[in-house]
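Lecture 7 notes: from sequence to structure.

We start with a single chain of 271 residues. Read the sequence below before looking at the structure.
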Amino acid sequence: MRIISGVVPRVSRLARLQELSKKARQRLKWFDYYNSRAHNARLTCRHFDIKPQTFYRWKKRYNPHRLASLEDHSHRPRHLRQPTYSTELVEAVLKLREEYPRWGKDKPGDIVEVDTLDVRPLPGVILKHFTARDVISRWDVFEAHSRATSNTASGFIDVLLRRMPFPIKAIQVDGGSEFQDAFERECQKRGIELFVLPPRSPKLNGHVERAQRTHTEEFYEVTASSFDLSELKDKLLEWEKVYNTVRPHQALGYVTPLKFLEQQKECQEGR
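Now the structure, written as tokens:
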């Protein structure tokens, strides 16, 4: 069978379609539509109701001669660090806290969840967004970098300690490589207890996972910017201030994290 450059034989394509997952077949529809509309990405995103960064991410991966390139990739790291406690133990503690909310009442700074997120606000622009969230007050500190390394994560601890309005006793992270080596040493140096979650347990870091979604939707997707890091730094600081002191939070009874902390202080002083 002769293959003309750039053209995939129909019989071969149909055979390979049978092997694709439902998600991969849907992504293939994006690019069939895109190619039939003079490579109009904006029209394609509107037609399928997808975000531009999602389209461009898959466009970069897509190989028309290898349809499996549209399948989801595993994000499991090659080298896994042993968790500091088991999934069963964590779930048991969470269940006890739900059943007996007055047992071992948490305070701001007792546990701060930290996570990183790939952000692709424009074609060819890839950022590593760090978020730290206090699980009680929902106070967030965040920063963007070009890379997520253990040295970058270790420097984020300094930012976290400066901008959280209370002392940090413990940090909880997943098993990502950026939270090893220099990050571990910095936590030890600062006297901060470090909890490492078991693999495949994002729900145990649910507070910061939810925060990452909010910052994507309410900042990156609506902010007019070149997303150059020097410009982005100032815009993120503005958003952090709005997020912590202006934006009401449903989980806090529709008050801001700042107002929540003030209320907690008033309660303690009134005892």
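The chain has two domains: 12-70, 87-269. Keep this in mind for problem set 3.
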